[in-house]
Amino acid sequence: MPAADVRAPLRASVPDTRAPYDVERVRREFPLLALSPDGRPLVYLDSAATSQKPAAVIAATADFYARSNANIHRGVYRLSEAATALYEGARAKVARFLNAPGPGDIVFTRGTTESINLVAQSYLRPRLAAGDEILVTAMEHHSNIVPWQLVAAERGAVLRVAPVSDRGELDVAALEGLLSDRTRIVALAQISNALGTVNPVGDVVRAAHHRGIPVLVDGAQAAPHLAADIQSLGCDFFACSGHKLFGPTGIGVLYGRAELLDGMAPWQGGGDMIAAVSFERSTWAAVPAKFEAGTPNIAGAVGLGAAVDFLSALDHEAVRGYEAALLRYATERIAAVPDVRLVGTAPEKASIVSFVMDGVHPHDIATILDADNICIRAGHHCAQPLMARLGVAATARASFALYSTRAEVDALAAGLERVRQVMAR
Ligand code: PMP
Fold it and tell me: What share of the chain is helix, strand, coil (3-state, %, to 5)?
């Protein structure tokens, strides 16, 4: 049997970090962005829902199945050892990328949703008594609301909600005022998926820690914008999804502070999470295996590792500068379309423009734009309480990534003009 090649060559190149940020060069790494259905370019402006994948990620995933596929951890043959090395190597890459203290603090999950459910069930549930409080914000994704509601309902605990302003800015003073002796966890997004608001998570962590309260950061939207730095945030838990981070679907990350993960009971039972099993009693493997029951998404982890390699090779300052300038441009162009109103105008924002158009349902906007190959999202963005707070049923949302361009923003602005004309007929 041939030894598995753990150094599978990536068929794609990575950008040169010394050159100025060259978006066209970055775009060439993303095969899907070159599609032109019906002979017209595809304008993909839904990266907050899921990002496109660089060739390096697609190649790493395919190469894994073609050359390294075996189940991990328990195999004594070389192919299995090679697959294990790739999987654990991906964990180390993710830990470095997110600046976690070490790979042992990184649990692979299916995604942000599963990571938050893990914390709700395994950390919070046994620590929650009737009358205890869970503090979230009014701009959370349903994934950072419902898992807490499930345990709160069971235990008679209460969900408290920190308010946001009309502009979609978190009221940090009000949040701090809601911290109490009964608060058992604070859970908030670093970046809102519906509005793009960037929250001052570090301030929230300091205020909560001052009272001994742990903080979970939903980093689903922050990680792709290279804004995640677990050690500088100082948070206790951090969740993100591979598919928003230029990696595959079905793989995600939970970081947990080592003492907390150590003290938590397993989340699911099965193979690979045990030390020993008998019918009388079973004992658990050490973290992170304790939280990874069953065969994990090995190829997904390998693909995520490749995504992290791709991102790590970029000049992060240059990417952030490029994205900030693109957001400013997009904000101006979209706001200038007659009858359009922006929803979410907080001073600190990232890569998302949400808007409504007088007299046109957001779904109609998105459907009409689709005829021009322009992909945007319309709806409540899994943030119904936020929509209710802002007095809208839904918004249209354009979201950008490090491969988005001004030309795509121009196409969107022109498309919105056409929406007005079509709807005025
Ligand atoms: N939180 C935020 C802020 C998100 O944007 C999303 C995805 N839209 C999630 C949580 C859930 O992520 P996933 O569906 O990948 O589990």
Answer: 45, 15, 40
